[in-house]
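Q: What does the assembled structure look like for these inputs?
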Amino acid sequence: MNKAAPFFRTFDFPRRVIGLAIAAGITALMLMIFLAVSRADIPLSSSSLQPDIPHLVRMSLIQAALTTALSLGVGIALAWALNRLRFFGRQLVVSLFATAIVAPAIVVALGVIALWGRAGWINGLLSAFSLDWNGSIFGLHGILLAHTILNGAFAAHILLARLETIPARKLKTAQSLALSPLRRFMVLDWPAISSSLPPLGAIIFLLAFTSFPIVLILGGGPANQTLEVAIYSYVRLSFDLRAALNLALVQLVLCLLIVLPALLMTPSLADAGTSRHLHWPDNKNARILQWLILLLALVGFGLPLLAVLVNGLGPGLFGVLVQPRFWQAALTSLSIGTASAILTLALALGLATARNSFASPLARTALALPAFAYLVIPALVLSLGFFLAVRKLQIPPADAAPFVLILANALLALPFAISVLAPALTAIDRRYRRTARSLALGGFTRWRLVEWPLMGRAVGIALAFGFCFSLGDLGVIALFGTSEFSTLPWLMFRALGAYRTNDAAAIASVLLLLTLVAFWALPPLMKKLSHARS
Amino acid sequence: MLTRLVLTFTLALAASAPALAQQNPTLTVYTYDAFAADWGPGPALKTGFEQTCACTLEFVAADSSIGALRRVQLEGENTNADIVLGLDTSIVGEALATGLFAPHKVDTGALRVPENWRSPVFVPFDYGYFAMVYNTELMPTPPTSFEKLAGNPDLKIVIQDPRSSTPGMGLMLWIKAAYGDDAEEAWPEIAPRVLTLTRSWSEAYALFLAGEADMVLSYTTSPAYHLMVENDPRFAAAPFREGHYTQIEVAGILSSSPNKQLANDFLTYLISPEAQVFIPTTNWMYPVADIELPAGFDTLFVPQKTLLLDDETVTENAARWIGEMLKSFE
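A:
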């Protein structure tokens, strides 16, 4: 491409500067957090636990690898089915699949149990036909099921967005050649999605590797645990911050070793455009298979979430809705979610556009890595570090709480937003780079005239991720929350801790509903806006 | 004219701010979340204490009492907290070892606390007993001991991870207090009955209420909540032959506090009958003052035999004992 172009003179210069500045800023922030924790001078307790690290690493690796393989497989199948089928409520189903990954993990875990547990819907149905299923949902398979629900649905969401960018002209050609469903998948779909798979796999692997509440609840005990649990117990039980930090570094290095190859892979050619106006269904046999996949996915993914909604929208809901503290928490959650969505989008665009302007793999990786920083560092270490750093700056934690919450959650959502935006941006870049350069369209003008009109939907999805991650946050707020400052998940956690299971269920369903609305409304809204301006 | 008005106003504000602060000191109490919540004892205590103290009482809620202690440890001498409230007897030894707490001047002589627990540094303000809670409709004859529980293969219980949860730690100490050195043999027999270990009490209790387990590790007082708030008499705590482990909740004043007198006043108020009357129905624990218990508490099972290990032994051995326990689950 423009390898020979001098750094300062390229028309990409502003983008490069912004991207590198963001990457440097995130790296500096992470360093500051690590330093703050390692410098904390806390006297050690008398005794300390000695976790079996090799065992934990082995278990985490097996579990994360299985989760990644299952989730990608399920994601591809589901995206394929959703791309071909048209039915009433399709957009709602697509949104439903996106909500799993952003909902508080405890909500999803309880949803899975409400469906598959001993007293769950499936068992209720089976016993109505006097069948008995004696299996238990607790164990490695329970973890894998919950993780596949979370990540498979997420993967499907991302891959579906890729499939929808296959240009109509290509589809027309393929249609006129009467490609079989299999050939069509290999020739059209696979090239469109394959470039998304390595980064997607990396995110899923990291999520599974560092998963905590789900692993603890559904794992059925300490046999199936992750490093994150050991780190947690160091901080919590023996308050040995140095040991926790050392473990966090082990986790960081392991994760980097796994993520780096995925990021170094050169993305294959992808398309930019939209196939919205051309719907080409497959033949009957393939359609039957697609309906079957969709049905299974709806039962497997949709029902646990539906169970949460149904359990929460009972009589308890009214009691919650009349509480002023509910509305206060809802307002806080919505404002923080909005701010964090905008920040996520800005950071993701800055990093992803800068990445496209570099040809060297080194520069591209340097811009991609910081996005993953937040996923590989244990949430507890991060919130500790933020807390210590804020104190060092002499800011009362209560004042800093909203800003830390916005920043931390934007960073958490960043890899997800990038996985939505980057493939679209790369495809546009490939197609329009030469035109843009000949017209000397610089950073912002190129965004306004070329990129934004083509990727409104992707922007909407990225915003939805940013919004929902901070809506569901339970990690950062635990250290910063006070009695005055509270969010919906915090309120839910409170209610759960005080026997108020019905209140908690009602808040959980409100949270899910908000998430659902965000994923249902934001992508089409942004798409409409982007078209209106072009 | 306008400038002058603004100036006067600003001066008045500037003058009144420190004066107000002097008149009305703020007493900051770090505690666990359920204590500070709207339905917890926090709001009533705030109203009650502020009527007499000419001060502002502020509760700062951490996710748990251990979380509150860790936050004070992180903040060290610069902490805003005057008091940490809600630590329990399994972590008191460790809290003492931090050296962050100062002796109190509260007269605790008249208090009724299990094992007559007293400390020069910490003031006990409520207590309870750990128990396995069950649904009497679904299980008419509950096990009467850990031995019976272990011997019933149809039974599933849900407990908390001792590394992250105070009740989880309580169960570990319970087994240790009941079985001593044999605890190491007891755990492998109990482990197959355990559905899962959760991070917190909330998650375990939610699983139990959802019908996933027959019993959950909670308190003998838990059924009172269902009875009195939800009008649901189905729940009960199972009496165990081994006896029941005691949890005493305490509060301590930080040595860095500039408001020590006020802090002592608050703790004196906290254990007075006027304040203790809120404890049973907001914190669902037993009060330490000699007050009449609300109707509903008379239906509860009160253990005859109670267990409690001394603070020092717990602090010294907890990590090792947890290791022993967790080995049975791997």
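The radius of gyration of chain A is 23 Å.
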